[in-house]
Amino acid sequence: MSQPIQLAFLWHMHQPLYRVGNEHVCTMPWVRMHSIRSYYDMVRVLEEFPKAHVTINLVPSLIEQIRAYESGASDLFWETGAIPAEALSDEQKRFVFQNFFTAQEHHMIRPLPAFARLFERRKDALHARGETDAWQAFDTQDYRDLQAVFDLCWFGFMACED
């Protein structure tokens, strides 16, 4: 007769310290984005398996940064994404064009048809215009769509089911 397997699950949730001191607007969004996607999914999956026992390790730098968001802190991506597309400066458009495709192509970009279209148009623009001028291939609606789909793609599968 086989014996039950004793299995331990340890989830190590970490992020480097992106927020320096009491900085209100952090340059990188990864604590917010991974909290929305991966960390939320992990906790929600556990609700489906109430007999499973796991250990979740939250490192201090992650907790501090989550608490900063809770207290009203932000990040450059969030701040730029909140600016109406028609009010974006050229520098902000460049930032959005360069950074708002920072997501896994097959798991996050391709499942959203509007994001996949923008992704392909970005590749075409980079090829046709080069790194310096490619951002000019997008119009106001493209920037508006990109601001929305970038945040939407970071919602994980459990958030989409809720």
Structure description:
- There is one protein chain.
- This protein is mainly alpha-helical and 162 residues long.
- It has eight helices and four strands, in the order ββαβαβαααααα.
- It has helices spanning 30-47, 60-70, 76-81, 90-99, 105-109, 113-133, 140-153, 157-161; strands at 9-13, 25-26, 54-58, 74-75.
- A two-stranded parallel sheet has the order 1-3.
- The N and C termini lie far apart (41 Å).
Secondary-structure blueprint:
Blueprint: E1 9-13, E2 25-26, H1 30-47, E3 54-58, H2 60-70, E4 74-75, H3 76-81, H4 90-99, H5 105-109, H6 113-133, H7 140-153, H8 157-161
Parallel strand pairs: 1-3, 2-4
Short characterization:
The protein contains eight helices and four strands; from the N terminus they run ββαβαβαααααα. The chain has about 160 residues and is mainly α. The model has no long low-confidence stretch (mean pLDDT about 90).
The major β-sheet equals: 2 strands, parallel
Tell me the radius of gyration: 19 Å
How would you sum up the global shape?
globular
Count helical runs: 8
List the defining traits of the structure above.
two-stranded parallel ribbon, mainly alpha, single chain, 162 residues
